[in-house]
Amino acid sequence: MQRAILLFVLLALLASSVSAHFILTYPVSRGFDEDMEPTSPCGSFNTLQNRTLFPISSGFVEINSGHVKATLQINIIFSSNPQTTDFSAAANSSASVKTNVDHPGFSCVPFDLSANSLAKNGTNATIQAVFNSGEESTLYQCTDVILSTSASNWNSSACINAGNSSGNSTTPSKSDAAALMQHGFVAILVVVVLAINL
Predict the structure, then answer these.
(1) Per-residue pLDDT tens digits for 41-98
(2) CATH says 22-174 is which class?
(3) Which keywords does UniProt give here (predicted)?
(4) What pLDDT digit, counting tens, does each position of 113-166 carry?
(5) Which helix (H) or strand (E) segment is 131 a member of?
(6) What average pLDDT does the segment 23-46 reach?
(7) Burial class (CB within 10 angstroms; exposed 0-12, middle 13-18, buried 19+) of 37
(8) Cβ neighbours of residue 182 under 8 Å, at least 6 residues apart?
């Protein structure tokens, strides 16, 4: 009986650890470290990375999460090398978009900058995703972009909403899934080993 109770508790902890984070999948995040993701402003990835061309008109941000419900805020910092104070100002600017996520899996959030006077062709910027499920600390990820009126390499098919059956539907890439689930698989192995040794 004690074995069953311990196994149940371990599996419950495993389930919460697997779904406890999110990953910025498109444009690609600077990096993902689940232990450091609660570190503002960019989940401990504070160094600029390769920039993605981001369309000024009809852009979007896509995330992948295991949470059923959460809030997601997308901020943009118009700067070649943003500092921590820049992120604080961006969170309260009119360029921010805040939305509710109501399903696990992929979520695509429209992020159109065509009405923003600071969004000019060739401008360097950093996009920050701020995720709050209400079950844990607020989580952060960033991606670096170059704003463009003709982002030729922009992958519009990457806009996936798992909770919308009429929306785009594709299979998550192995790299995206691995980044989110690697910790979960390790935890499963630990649970199995512990169960065998009980």
Answers:
(1) 999 999 998 999 999 999 999 999 988 889 999 999 999 999 998 998 888 888 889 9
(2) mainly beta
(3) Cell membrane, Glycoprotein, Lipoprotein, Membrane, Signal, Transmembrane, Transmembrane helix
(4) 999 999 999 999 999 999 998 877 899 999 999 999 998 899 999 998 887 644
(5) strand 124-132
(6) 95
(7) buried
(8) none
Q: How many CA atoms lie within 13 A of 178 on its CB side?
A: 3
Q: Where are the alpha helices (DSSP H) in 37-173?
A: 84-91
- DSSP label at residue 133: -
Three-point CA angle 142, 27, 140, nearest 5°: 25
**Local structure of 86: helix, strand or coil:** helix
- Residue 111, Cα to own-chain centre: how many angstroms? 14
What is d(CA 25, CA 62) in angstroms, rounded to the nearest whole number? 6
Kind of pairing between the strands at 139-148 and 52-55: parallel
Cβ density class 15-26: b for 16+ within 10 Å, e for less = eeebbbbbbbbb
24 close to 143: Cβ distance less than 8 angstroms: yes
The whole-angstrom separation of Cα 194 and Cα 63 is: 33
Residue recorded with tokens 């008109």: 57
What is the predicted pLDDT for the residue at 136?
77
Q: How far is CA 157 from the centre of its chain?
A: 17
